Amino acid sequence: MTTPATAPADTGPAPSAPLPYVHKEAGFVRSFLRVPSGVAGVGILAVSGLLALLAPLFVSADDLDVIKVDGPSLHGPTDGYPLGTDQEGRSILLLVVWGARSSLAVGLLATVLTVVLGSAIGLVAGHYGGWTGKGLMHVTDWFIALPGLPLAISLAAVLGQGSTSITIAIAVTSWASTARLVRAQTLSVEARPFVERARALGASGRQVMVRHVLPNVTPLILVSSTLTVASAILSEATLTFLGLGDPTGISWGSMLNSALNGGAVTAGAWWYLYPPGVAILIVVLGFTLTGRAVETVLNPRSVSAR
Fold first, then answer.
1. What is the pLDDT of residues 2-43, one digit of tens each?
2. CA pair distance 179, 138, nearest whole angstrom
3. Burial letters 103-126, b for 16+ CB under 10 A, else e
4. Separation between Cα atoms, residue 26 and residue 18, nearest integer Å
5. Is there a contact between 74 and 264 (Cβ–Cβ < 8 Å)?
6. Which residues make Cβ contacts (< 8 Å) with residue 44, sequence separation at least 6?
7. Single pTM value for the model
């Protein structure tokens, strides 16, 4: 008589294999942490972002109201005013902290619009080619050939003063370089064998572009966006310095404009001129260091070298 086979003990469900994208994200973080300049850039951006987000907790409306402040006019740094005062008696330190909200918000929003517009045009031009691609690239070349700053000034002046017009002007004049980079990368990706296999298996043009091309172009878009923020913040500061921003708002560019018109230069009030300029320099440096570090990590040659 045969003995019935004993069923194997139930040890529970087999552990699932870690998802591939988890490994990729963890590897990216480890590689990024090995780049000291990138860590420094992220630290700068983290401190700047926290100050901008938490500004309403220690900067009240009365501190910014020219009618309610009672500080001395254009006074140098003292115990009560670490960075001095402006011509209205407001604390320069509080103005710099509050101005970060507008400058960073406009720079980030303009970058999002720039990257989305440039990436979409670059993907479509590289994927479809033909007359569609040639036409889009002719428009892109036309925008690249035009001087960006005068065009942004003209566009912002036509749209009127305000943060919205500055954001649109920066996005409209900055998308062309992103479009050209994304188109070149799209052409490179579409020439690879896995894309040809996807087409042979019946994948539509939209599926190829969304499922195969876009994920491989995303690292380039990420690098481009981190570097574009720096130029967008500089453009915002330039346009607001020229008086095209919100006249009632406070930003680093508007502070420089107010310092120039308020006689800070002739009065030698260096404490009014330097802080907003240094703040712009530090934030731009933070985005530049972060973008270069991301570019180093995502560069296949540098990754293979490590």
1. 444 444 444 444 333 334 444 566 777 888 888 899 899 999
2. 12
3. bbebbbbbbbbbbebbbebbbbbb
4. 12
5. yes
6. 282, 283, 285, 286, 289
7. 0.81
